[in-house]
Give the backbone structure.
Amino acid sequence: MSWPSSSKSRKGSSVHGQQHACKSNFKGGTSITASQRIQAHPRPFTKTCLYYHFAFAAACATARGAAHFKEIRGFSMARSYTIVFFDLDGTLLPMDTDVFMKRYFKALGAFAAENGLGSDMCLGAVMAGVKAMAKSDGSATNHDVFWKAFTKATGLDAEEMKTLFSRFYEGQFSQVGEGVQANPEAARAVATLKGKGYRVAVTTMPMFPLAAVHERIRWAGLDPDDFEFATDYETCYAVKPMPRYYEDCLARAGVAADEVLMVGNHNREDGLATKVGCDIYFVTDHLIESEEGLDVSECKHGSMVEFADWCEALPSLK
């Protein structure tokens, strides 16, 4: 999800050609150790090489159809994932970000007016809070940063406004998702991963309370309980694309970066996960590209259908 968005969005499947391991072009990348290099490029006929050869052959044998087999050969299968981080809007949830934001502000403005608040004042204060979270130095939670900016802009009591906003997210917010058609392939991907023993989490832009995140997960045809955790503004100290956000997600999951596959649709916000050492897969159905982001053609990418197929080819951890 991009909020506010200054990037170009593009719909479609594998429009960037053959899929393969991502070559991060973010500055400030770290070098890999000798053992990591051996694992990524094992010598012929060593145990490591033979293990990955047979694991890859088994994965390809389960891939759907000869065409998909041909595509999957482009992937680097050497990384041993234990957990998959999913972006939500535009990835698991097939909803265009611009459409979502228009509906969100319309519903919130109407709610504010119904409760005696100036619609323009309320929306202006919300945007002030969003900008404050985007510029946060990480010393306070996004929740605290947002409400400090909101109350400064309105002069209203923060606790009263929190109670009022809770009513919105537990009620009228559901209207924002009316008409959204869940993609069953997202549910297939999640179910496949969990069935193989992979952990899954939702690492969405943490600018909303948890109730709003859970509601959007349900719009995607999924259950919040399907996921180990979902990021929200009360538990996060940074937002995408700050490295601190991904570092906190790694700490929360208790994993090293090389165990993580980030799945998203924004080449900068989601792609920055590679800067802390995660791998990346771009879902291209609602792709958003920024000039400052990764080159999608040099990363794993495909439609949600293709991603779900790819998940079926991953080795089981059980």
Notes: The longest strand covers residues 260-264. The radius of gyration is 20 Å.
